[in-house]
Design brief:
β16 and β17 form a beta hairpin. This protein is mostly beta strands and 606 residues long. Strands 30, 33, 35, 37, 39, 40, 42, 44, 45, 48, 50 and 52 form a 12-stranded mixed beta sheet that branches. The protein has a 5-stranded antiparallel beta sheet with strand order 1-2-29-28-27, with no helix packed on it. Strands 3-4-5-6 form a 4-stranded antiparallel beta sheet, with no helix packed on it. The chain has 4 domains: 9-315, YVTN repeat-like/Quinoprotein amine dehydrogenase (Methylamine Dehydrogenase, Chain H); 317-401, Immunoglobulin-like; 411-483; 491-580, Sandwich (Immunoglobulin-like). 2% of the residues lie in helices and 50% in strands.
């Protein structure tokens, strides 16, 4: 049986009596859910059961029994509009060609302004229509209506309708259009868990049914959510594969919409549920126990309609701002901005191409923690300043909550070991200066150093018993960079550096051979040790040379000047350092003018 069927006479009389004895037609109630409190107000739009409501960009339009059509700019004050029919209207949708309403016996109405309505042309007027959506497959506007016996109708102009083949005969209750930028689709839902999918609104396929009678479906920025009888909810990222969600209620859910940062679902006995992802739901305490059948969002107010003309509305607010690249006015796209209260996510938004964002549908009188993150970006990560902002909302939208983004990059590479070494590889440690943390995977031999701002970094791999080529690498980062290292079995060459007179150096001893160079650090007189690679199994020959370190204050000669060592069977090699000095001055004429070309000789004894 259709969820849009008319209310029984007994229940209508009960709700009408309750409303007639109310002292005022507008009252408020506090409700909690999705991390903060909403203030709900209740109004009347006639006395007929209202089945659906839509925001057309300028006004709310509610439709219901006996051809009822009501309009409101704010969801509180409603005006009746003649529809020209006494047939029940089940749903309405807004699109490029205006408004469309559908109802019993295939009724189709169209209006350019919500004031004047005309009957559309349909191939059949026997099957009642329950759901309606407007989409733009391939950039072209298309209205889709669904109803009894699997009925599917489409129209480009909101007036002339065509039937398309349906893969089911179950009654369809709702339809929505959505999806990622390049992967949009229509999804229709209905009795016996029917789920239909279409990229163009004309060719439809059935997905695996779910175990519930479904009443409505909506797209919410990253997923479709379908709701139904018994509190059923199902979530799909692509409109084809669906997983169940727990709503926490066993009452029927009749309608759902997206509020820019969260879903709202409404249903029996005044049920109001909210969810930021379609998976985790929280109940709102609405102002009445009225059965609710439709819900819509304008950007600044949410409106639910139901039995006996009852309308429940809550004013919502937005937090907005811009994310720009550090030091520029360039906006950063794709950054996720999340508003939380405590540990609960209240809403989120993704920055547009110009870096702007707006988190809508937020309750009043609440302080939110607004945090940017680039985790969802596949190619680029950022650090943000400030890391978060504390933003109170008090009766007005909050603007200019801005963030600057500093691009972060990754250094990555492979560490190769001598032939015959197999995974898991030895546990290499890579130190990073001045900052950064390296993660090394022993199963693959790969390492990564993520989240680095642009700059220069020095990488030093280490592992006992091995040397690396290069021994150290200085990497300039202005994008993602690859830097590989070769690990080789090590041997140690040792010896002494002594001074021929009182001196402290410091000195450096360098071993060169096999295409590799391994220096010591700066050392004073005494023992030196150099770890070198065994690049041959029998003769890994290195030439050793001593030199003054860059910080030495004197120049030196060394004896021997160089010496060759086989690292496979090293013997100690010693060096003697002898300092030498210089005498400097100027030659001038008696008048004090510099004199060029003069040879100055220094001699000792004869």
């Amino acid at each position: 049986m259709s969820s849009r069927s008319t209310l029984s006479l007994g229940r209508s009389l009960v709700f009408l009596a309750l409303l007639l004895v109310a002292a005022v037609p507008l009252f408020a109630a506090q409700g909690t859910g999705a991390g903060a409190a909403y203030t709900w107000q209740t109004a009347l739009a006639g006395t007929q059961q209202l089945h659906g409501v839509v925001w057309d960009g300028r006004r709310f339009v509610a439709v219901g029994d006996k051809g009822a059509v009501f309009t409101s700019a704010d969801g509180r004050a409603w005006s009746p509009v003649p529809s020209g029919t006494a047939q029940p209207l089940a749903a309405a949708a807004a699109g490029k060609r205006g408004l469309v309403a559908v109802g019993a016996q295939g009724l189709l109405l169209a209006s350019p302004d919500a004031q004047s309505w005309s009957t559309g042309t349909a191939p059949s007027r026997h099957a009642s229509l329950n759901g309606l959506a407007f989409g733009q497959p391939a950039g072209k506007g298309l209205y889709v209506a669904v109803g009894e016996l699997g009925t599917l109708l489409t129209s480009r102009d909101a007036k002339t309708w065509s039937a398309v083949a349906s893969p089911v005969t179950d009654t369809l209750q709702g339809v929505a259009w959505g999806g990622a930028k390049d992967d949009t689709a229509f999804v229709a839902v209905g009795d016996n868990g029917s789920l239909l999918y279409s990229r163009d609104g004309k060719s439809w396929m059935a997905s695996q049914p779910v175990p519930a009678n479904l009443t409505a479906v909506a797209w919410g920025g990253s997923c479709f959510v379908a709701v139904g009888q018994g509190g059923a909810a199902f979530v799909s990222e692509n409109g084809l594969t669906w997983v169940p969600a727990v709503t926490g209620t066993s009452l029927n859910l009749n309608a759902i919409t997206w509020m820019g940062s969260r879903f709202i679902a409404v249903g029996a006995a005044g049920t109001i549920l909210m969810s930021t992802d379609g998976k985790t739901w929280q109940a709102q305490q609405g102002p009445t126990a009225t059965w609710l059948h439709g819900v819509a969002f304008s950007g600044s107010a949410v409106v639910a309609v139901g039995d006996a003309g009852v309308v429940e509305t809550a004013t919502t607010y937005a937090i907005s701002g811009t994310v720009t690249l550090n030091g520029t006015s360039t906006g950063v796209a794709g950054v996720t901005i999340t508003a939380t209260t405590g540990s609960t996510t209240s809403g989120s938004a993704t920055t547009a191409a110009d870096g702007t964002y707006s988190i809508t549908g937020l309750p009043d009188s609440t302080t939110y923690t607004v945090t940017p993150t680039s985790a969802a970006l596949p190619a680029q990560q950022y650090a943000f300043q400030p890391q978060f902002s504390s933003v109170p909302i008090s009766g007005a939208n909050v603007t200019n909550i801005n963030f600057t983004a500093t691009a972060l990059y990754t250094i990555s590479g492979a560490i190769t070991f001598p032939s015959g070494t197999t995974a898991p590889y030895p546990p290499v440690t890579i130190s990073v200066s001045p900052s950064g943390t390296a993660t090394y995977d022993q199963n693959t031999g790969l390492y990564t150093i993520p989240n680095l701002p642009a700059g220069s970094y020095t990488l030093t791999p280490s592992l006992s018993g091995y040397v690396f080529s290069p021994a150290q690498a200085t990497v300039t980062v202005s994008g993602n960079v690859a830097q590989n290292f070769q690990a080789m079995a090590a041997a140690t060459i040792t010896g002494m550096i002594s001074a021929s007179c009182s001196t402290t150096g410091p000195f450096v001893v360098t071993a060169t051979g096999g295409g590799y160079t391994f220096p010591t650090g700066a050392i004073g007189p005494g023992t030196y040790n150099i770890d070198v690679a065994l690049y041959s199994t029998t003769s890994s020959t290195y030439t050793l040379k001593a030199s003054a370190a860059s910080t030495a204050t004197l120049a030196y000669t060394f004896n021997p000047i160089s010496v060759d060592v086989n690292a496979n069977a090293p013997v100690p090699e010693d060096f003697v350092a002898t300092p030498y000095y210089s005498i400097s001055g100027a030659v001038t004429t008696s008048g004090g003018n510099p004199l060029a070309g003069v040879t100055v000789t220094a001699s000792s004894g004869s």
